[in-house]
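(Structure overview)
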Amino acid sequence: MPGRTPREAVDAFLDPLKDTVSCVARAKITLSRDGRGMTGKIHGLSLNKDNPVTLKCHSSLLLRVNMLYEIVRTDDPERGPWRISTRGYAYELQTSNRQLVWSYHWHPTSAVTTPHAHLGRTQLAEHAVLSEKAHHPTGRVSLESVIRTCIADYGVEPLRDDWAETLAVREGDFELYRSWS
């Protein structure tokens, strides 16, 4: 998201995330120290200081959200000289006893540099196990698509009547400003 100053760019990045999260949770986005204005550094953000958020549904699911971002200078005079570039993410759905259901990760500085998913550990048959350590390849995953999946596929009750429109608008922002698919 663009801005005239680094701080404006961060605010333009956070506003859509706040709208997205508000579709399913009352939670605060916490930034790492100096996360609103220091350039040339990777910053982190988390939901509720990295404590899972309880989602309203019949099965008591928990959501964790973490992202890494950098404030970067851009050459686009129409959008502003500053923008935010996502440098990694981890979105995780857990059961009420903190067992992994699934998680989407992108941490390009680790051994697995591409976006991927982890699925909860399950015994499928006598000798077939679905390992939560396996990296299932994905494309880039937006927080909006994660929230939509929670609502549509896991029975999470939206907290906003306009959740579908909000997610559609905010995912449009994501697609407009992302620099790779």
